[in-house]
Specification:
This protein is an alpha+beta fold. It has seven helices and five strands; from the N terminus they run αααββββααβαα. α2 packs parallel to α4 and α4 packs antiparallel against α5.
Length: 198
């Protein structure tokens, strides 16, 4: 266990007692700590950011692919709104008050997610969302945003661009390395037999 600022030397013994003690002290003062509240981003700004993002996606990815993404219902607690985002037609609309949300995101991280190509990656790393249901659809949105951030575009006139081939090569190399390591590990540490010994 490390406390911010601690260092650890790989493969050396490490005593976590001091770090755990510091965490205990920090948690005992938790109620006294300042809590920064993110600024509220109005629905009109979110709509503009989403429409710009969707326009960009529609110019880079085939409509048939975008059409396979189901609309995403996003609950925005600080606006007390639930919106439905549909990339295929670029619409962000207010959902019915009783509509079930797929994910819950406050307005500031949602705006950042839509306004920056790397925004979905930042949102995922920061954990500033609460996935409620329809995980498969959420993962499809994340995959599309990741491709866009990597500048891997799938419309026909983009297919033979250098970054697409570079991305594909990197992915294939990564898969081959993973398979090689997995097979090497399997030879080094064979799986135990499930048969009972007599």
């Amino acid at each position: 266990m490390l406390y911010p600022g601690d260092e650890y030397v790989v493969n050396q013994p490490h005593d976590s007692f001091a770090a755990l003690t510091r965490y205990d002290e920090s948690y005992s003062r938790l109620r006294l700590m300042a809590y920064d509240v993110s600024a509220v981003v109005h629905l009109s700004e979110l709509t503009d950011a989403f429409q710009s993002c969707a326009r960009s996606m529609r110019s880079r990815y085939p409509q048939i692919l975008l059409g396979r993404l189901r609309p995403l219902n996003v609950r925005i607690p600080d606006l007390d709104e639930t919106v439905t985002m549909t990339i295929a037609d670029g619409s962000l609309t207010r959902a019915d008050k009783n509509a079930q949300a797929d994910v819950e995101i406050y307005s500031q991280p949602l705006h950042y997610c839509l306004a920056q190509p790397w925004g979905m990656g930042t949102l995922t790393i920061s954990g500033r969302f609460n996935l409620l249901r329809n995980e498969r659809n959420w993962k499809a949105f994340k995959a599309l945003f990741a491709l866009n951030n990597a500048e891997v575009y799938l419309r026909p006139h983009y297919l033979f661009q250098r970054q697409n081939w570079g991305y594909l090569k990197d992915r294939l190399n990564g898969m081959m390395r993973y398979r090689y390591r997995t097979r090497s590990r399997a030879r080094e540490f064979p799986a135990p037999s499930l048969r009972q010994q007599p």
